[in-house]
Amino acid sequence: MQWLKILIYFISIIILNTNAKFVRDPNGYIAYCPCMGRFGNQADHFLGSLAFAQALNRTLILPPWVEYRKGEMRSRQVSFDTYFEVEPLMQFHRVILMSDFMDHLADEVWPAKERISFCYMERKSLQQEKNNPDSPNCHAKDGNPFGPFWDTYNIDFVGSEFYGPLHFDVRHSSIAAKWQENYKPHKWPVLAYTGAPASFPVQLENRELQKYLKWSPKYREAAREFIRTVLPRGAFIGLHLRNGIDWVRACEHIKDSQQLFASPQCLGYKNERGELYQELCMPTKEAIIRQLKRTIKNVRQLQPKNEVKSVFVASDANHMIAELTNALARMDISVHKLQEDDPYVDLAILGQSNHFIGNCISSYSAFVKRERDTHGFPSYFWSFPKEKERQQTKAHEEL
Ligand code: GFB
Description:
It is a single chain. The chain folds into two domains: 29-205, Rossmann fold; 216-397, Rossmann fold. Helix content is 40%, strand content 14%. The chain contains 16 helices and 13 strands. It is globular and about 70 Å long. By secondary structure, it is α/β, with parallel strands linked by helices. Strand 12 (355-358), helix 15 (363-375) and strand 13 (379-381) form a beta-alpha-beta unit. The longest helix is centred in the first third of the chain and has 19 residues, at 2-20. Helix 2 packs across helix 15 (363-375), helix 8 packs across helix 14 (343-352) and helix 14 (343-352) runs parallel beside helix 15. It catalyses: L-threonyl-[protein] + GDP-beta-L-fucose = 3-O-(alpha-L-fucosyl)-L-threonyl-[protein] + GDP + H(+); L-seryl-[protein] + GDP-beta-L-fucose = 3-O-(alpha-L-fucosyl)-L-seryl-[protein] + GDP + H(+).
């Protein structure tokens, strides 16, 4: 029986060590559902939520990424660390994976009978019979992805808390202190929001938090492998072509908006660099080819020793491989895309390209732009500045 005692001894050491890694934060936690939009939107929201958690001095529970697959009624939740490392985020603020929190701390910190969901004001349920005027509710699990998100961790809420008029702009007000005053951690150990406690697009001040988002080894390696084995040796230009049917429809909003999605990244948060225009959202094929050729020429002039040898195209719909290959044939530049569609490998490769041209309105492009900014890599936007304005600036410079 000696061996059994030794086995039990080692198992208890392992259990104790695992639990020692997860010590309760007396300052409390913040949880939220990234329930709006796809990856680009969620990434913008993530940076704001990280800043918010830091301002309130609560540990941020890292939510899984919410993904939507064709033909599936329920969203899929993909663990945060599938795409990004947890460790580098700790340099900025305390974070914990949602699965770790639920597996190791929730029973003690956030018992099932004390789980309250937070929303600004009452959220009506789509199922009329659930709406009770005497008992307003956040209906935090109503619909997709709300239900599937919390279900992933078997979370049910026993009540709702309406936090209005508090808001999330911790960068421009003293609101963090008010949150702390209203919601003391011993009484409210977890503030669990129905949506991200952040604005979209990401605030200017929070853009630089991107530097703490480091690709997981799997995606870093996939990008490196593609660049090493598929692309010819030499510099390459990364292109993001956002042109699916959802985008065509979204671009129709251009005419009645000052800003759309990520557009402040080129127009400025107060439109200080211009107004919205159609080509910024959906450049024509001709404009894309013109701008690409111009960029290649400029790189040749400015960096003659690091000539562009290839172009990598990421797209949600039309990669324009034939048109681009044809247009660049005389320059001896090849055009590539992933063999198998993968939005995350696309992003990781675009982040590594020598030059990048993205879509100013797209938050997917914005992710790439921010990542490249943290490395000092150059990025440009399709049809920005406006062609007419660009010609005027050029003429002015030549005078
Ligand atoms: O990321 P996202 O919020 O960016 O949504 P936008 C676009 C999604 O389309 C990405 C796919 O998360 C990807 O799944 N996608 C876009 C791509 N570009 C590529 C690409 O180059 N390669 C691959 N593989 N996939 C806006 C949203 O999308 O679209 C708005 O912000 C709205 O909420 C609008 O839904 C219609 O900002 O571009």
